[in-house]
Amino acid sequence: MWSSSQASTRGVVEMGGRVEAGPSHFPKRPAPRNPARVNLSRTHAVKPCSAGDRAGISVKCNLGWSSQPSPDLKRHLRGFSSASEAVLTSQSDLRKLFVGNEKIGVLLLNLGGPETLDDVQPFLFNLFADPDIIRLPRLFRFLQKPLAQFISVVRAPKSKEGYASIGGGSPLRQITDAQAEALKEALCEKDVPAKVYVGMRYWHPFTEEAIQQIKRDGITKLVVLPLYPQFSISTSGSSLRLLESIFREDEYLVNMQHTVIPSWYQREGYIKAMATLIENELTKFPEPQKVMIFFSAHGVPLAYVEEAGDPYKAEMEECIDLIMEELEKRGITNPCTLAYQVTAALSNFNQPNMVFILLLLINLLNL
Ligand SMILES: C=CC1=C(C)c2cc3[nH]c(cc4nc(cc5[nH]c(cc1n2)c(C)c5CCC(=O)O)C(CCC(=O)O)=C4C)c(C)c3C=C
Ligand SMILES: [Fe+2]
């Protein structure tokens, strides 16, 4: 999938059970088109993590396949409806993070990408082996890796063509490293000496590597920031699920205070930056007012949105509303449209296609 923009925010930050509300909220929006979905996004919000909290990373997502959130999940949602309004943005808020000799770390999570054409197939294998990308029915879980191997080999030539056309590899690592450096400098300017780490889901530097470094550096408080503006089970959800499993099994990490910013698509800075990008592009047309603004977003499997409560679609649409509202304030009233990409072979799979995949596999393996 070839995404051009990975930028944007309402963040939720808690440290050691304390929620700090910053002053620079983006003005509150009317309810998005699908409020139920957005409510679910709050389940990815943070809950206080104390030394006694053995659950590790405190992110709760409805990552299963039930069509209804469980009563437990609903309770959880209610608990966070106010916390999710909290943001940690001001300098004074950030300073409050420092208590004694605390060492602050920020972990940026991203997808990762092949750096050379030889990396493409193993990168694709890692991606398709992830049950948050391809979810097989429980009975067929043992086929996850053979299926990933098969799809990655079949998909690799097409993928390689794409990566070859942009210089022979993914620029994602360089871009993410540059973001990490810029964030470190920005925090330093605010007198917040934090270390910033990059943890990729499917390629180097892997999340596991970043976590090892965090432990070596003796970080005592960690902010986890997925670099996807909108939350999806297949992106931030997958990275956070991995992190949760790493935390659960590690004494050091379980006892480290941490917090998660689940999505940040409605942050003022992001919305304004997006509006400015669009504004600048419009000036390149001879008649800017006649231009249709075309938003292109990743597709996610329909079942994620309809059955598992993935808030991605609702967050994306709310985000676009906010950008258009910002443009309107600047006197730009062009029409706009939104399309979801279905570029990866299986990105829109649902039950019938799942059957197709399995039949394909059964054929292939002569079962
Ligand atoms: C098949 C399932 C996939 C789902 C679901 C999916 C969701 C999804 N992806 C992004 C962002 C990116 N994806 C990227 C690459 C990529 N993604 C898939 C598959 C799914 N993505 C594949 C097979 C690939 C590899 C390239 C290809 O063969 O098309 C990338 C690029 C990474 C890089 O190399 O720089 C990004 C970015 C989002 C935001 C998303 C759901 C919301
Ligand atoms: Fe993708």
TrEMBL record:
Tagged with keyword Ligase: no
Subcellular localization: Plastid, Chloroplast
Transcription listed as a keyword: no
Keywords: Chloroplast, Heme biosynthesis, Iron, Lyase, Plastid, Porphyrin biosynthesis
Pfam families with a match to the protein in the record: Ferrochelatase (PF00762)
Biological process (GO), any one: heme biosynthetic process
One GO term describing the cellular component: mitochondrion
SUPFAM superfamilies from the UniProt entry: Chelatase
Region (Disordered): 1-36
Signal peptide start-end: none
InterPro entries assigned: Ferrochelatase (IPR001015), Ferrochelatase_AS (IPR019772), Ferrochelatase_N (IPR033659)
Catalytic activity field: heme b + 2 H(+) = protoporphyrin IX + Fe(2+)
Role summary: Catalyzes the ferrous insertion into protoporphyrin IX.
Family the UniProt entry places it in: Belongs to the ferrochelatase family.
PANTHER family: FERROCHELATASE (PTHR11108), FERROCHELATASE-2, CHLOROPLASTIC (PTHR11108:SF9)
NCBIfam families xref list: hemH (TIGR00109)
UniProt name for this protein: Ferrochelatase
